[in-house]
Amino acid sequence: MTVALISAPQLEPINLAEAKAHLRIDHSHEDPLISSTMTAARYYAETASGQKFITQSWRQYETCMADNRRIALRLRPVQSISAVTIYDQEGNPSILSSNDFELVRGSEPALLQFSSSISTAQAANGVEIDMVVGMGDFGIDVPDTIKRAILMLTAHWYEFRGAVDPRDQPVSIPSGFDALVSPFREMRL
């Protein structure tokens, strides 16, 4: 299983003004640095929590379909499925109708269940699943604890940006970051 970003979030869970207020900065000559640090902090927090925050589109690649006609979706939370393409034994793509699959939301991870009209042999050369994921379209849809973790990480990386060679970044994670994102992690055995 591999995933690839199709379209990034259109905005960040926190805006530049919120980050600058948190950093106690009132000038604008470092706005590009602060903005890029916020994006990196959001990406790190998404990776640490296992969830996507602001609506974005991803593609999941699977080599085949299981005999039970289900595929576990590796990103969360899944809002919707945009398209499903299966490749036959010759590598020819077929885009499935929305009647050929169903998003099963009540499970962790979310599942894509294929109808009985789709045989597992049809997907001999793989399956591509395009999905929309995220907690919502705006920062207000993201829990405050996640926004606090992003602000904390942005401030930490901003403060220590010159202390360590850029190739060694991130050099550290601030104390308390894990406590803020851990409630959003998927529990695994």
CATH superfamily of the largest domain: Phage gp6-like head-tail connector protein
Q: Give the tally of β-strands.
A: 8
Q: What CATH architecture label of the largest domain applies? A: Orthogonal Bundle
> Using only CA atoms, what is the Rg?
20 Å
Q: Mean pLDDT, rounded to whole units?
A: 90
> Which sequence of SSEs, written as H and E, runs from N to C?
EHHEEEEEEEHH
Strand order of the biggest β-sheet: 1-2-8-4-5
Shape field: elongated
Helix tally? 4
CATH class of the largest domain: Mainly Alpha
Q: Major sheet: size, sense and barrel closure?
A: 5 strands, antiparallel
Helix content: 25-40%
Distance between the ends? 19 Å
Strand percentage lies at 15-25%
Q: How many structurally independent domains?
A: 2
Descriptive account of the structure:
This protein folds into two domains: 7-53 and 138-184, Orthogonal Bundle (Hypothetical protein yqbg), CATH 1.10.3230; 56-133. The protein has four helices and eight strands. The strands form two sheets. The protein has a five-stranded antiparallel β-sheet, with no helix packed on it. It is elongated. The protein has 189 residues and is an alpha+beta fold. Helices cover 25% and strands 23% of the residues.
